[in-house]
Structure formats: C-alpha cells, structure tokens
Amino acid sequence: MAATPSAMIELGTTAPHFNLPDTISGKSMDLDELKSKHATVVMFICNHCPYVKHILSELVKLTNEYIQKGISFIAINSNDVISYPEDSPENMKKLAQEMGFAFPYLYDETQQVAKAYHAECTPDFFVYDKDLKLVYRGQFDDSRPKNNIPVTGKDLKNALDCILQGKEVDKNQKPSIGCNIKWKG
Predict the structure, then answer these.
(1) Domain presence at residue 11
(2) 127 with 40: CB under 8 angstroms?
(3) Within a 13 Å sphere around the CA of 123, how many CA atoms are in the beta-carbon half?
(4) Taking the C-alpha atoms of 147, 176, 77 and 116 in order, what is their torsion angle to the nearest 10 degrees?
(5) 35, 61, 62, 163: which could join 39 in a potential S-S bond, CB 3.0 to 4.6 Å?
(6) What residues in the chain have per-residue pLDDT under 70?
(7) What is the pLDDT of residue 6?
C-alpha cells in the first residue's frame, strides 16, 4: 500500500472540461451539465484502493448532505482495469449501487481526464467554485487506514461550508494521500 500525495496544483486553475461515460446510468456526461451554481467537487476514486475503502461510507454520507445544499459531486475512476479488474466499469456500477451513490461514477478509460486534472492518487479531491475555479484540492480529512483517527471529512466539509457561507476557503490545505492512479503501461 504505497502512499502517494496529491499534486496540489495552483488554486484558481480552471476545471478541465470532460465528457465521460457514467457507469451507473450508462449515459455520457459532461462537466457543463454536472456542475453546480455553488460548487462542484471532482473526486478521483476507485474500487480497490484501501484509502478509498477507508473513507467511502463517510464520503457517501457527506455527499448526500451537501447535494441537498446544492453542491455537485462527480466521481471519476481512471485506473487501468486490465491490471486492476476490480476497477472495471461493471464493478464500478456494482459498488455505486451497493453504496447508494447519489452522484455519477464516471469511467476515464483513456486516463486523459486524470492527466488534465493532475490527479495523482485515490482519493484525490478538487473543489471548484461556481465559475469552475479551483478553491480546494487535497484530503478528505486526516484519517488513514490504521492511524486510528476517525473519518469525518472535516477538511472537505470546511471548504464546502466556506463556499456556501460566501467565505474564502482557507488556502492552507493538506494533500490527500492514497494509492497512486494505476497508469497504463
């Protein structure tokens, strides 16, 4: 379980456009139709990573709470499914249904979207304001598998609460830590 940190790209960066298949609905979806008038969270996750599994229940709770407040969430899996078949579109759909995802779970087969976002690990979180400018990138919270810190989502929640309250998001942000994106050979 090699720990890889987020790239921590520059705040203010514009969200790269994408159009990807949603493994839940089978439809192709794009950023313009999925974005919110408040904030949009782009999350790079996958099925097999122990770091994602560690936070997944709390992440689903957080998304359900903040979707009600007008925040949009988009999950993307960019892993090489040849080497990691657990991350296949069929298994993505199965996980989404089992966990009750209220957000799309998109499959980035070419890995171009992960490259455009400079995603490095799973989970990796990018929060964009109403103008699709990056205001937060980094960790869900301080919890990691085996560190005995409770999973709360406090870092992501704090960023979203600031946006909803019209406050500036604290620029002191910690990188996410997780499994590296499984790039194709």
Answers:
(1) yes
(2) yes
(3) 28
(4) -170
(5) 163
(6) 1-2
(7) 94
Give the pair of three-digit tokens for residue 184.
């194709």
Residue 133's DSSP bridge partners are: 14
Residue 185 falls inside a structural domain: no
pTM: 0.97
Q: Please name every residue paired with 177 in a beta bridge, in sequence order, or none if there are none.
A: 5
Domain count across the chain: 1
Residue type, 132: L
**What is d(CA 84, CA 164) in angstroms, rounded to the nearest whole number?**
37
Q: What is the CATH number of the domain that holds 67?
A: 3.40.30.10
Q: Structure tokens of 16? A: 């790269």
Task: Provide the pLDDT for residue 185.
Answer: 85
The CB density around residue 66, as the number of other CB atoms within 10 Å, is 23
> 13, exposed or middle or buried, with CB in 10 Å at 0-12, 13-18, 19+?
middle
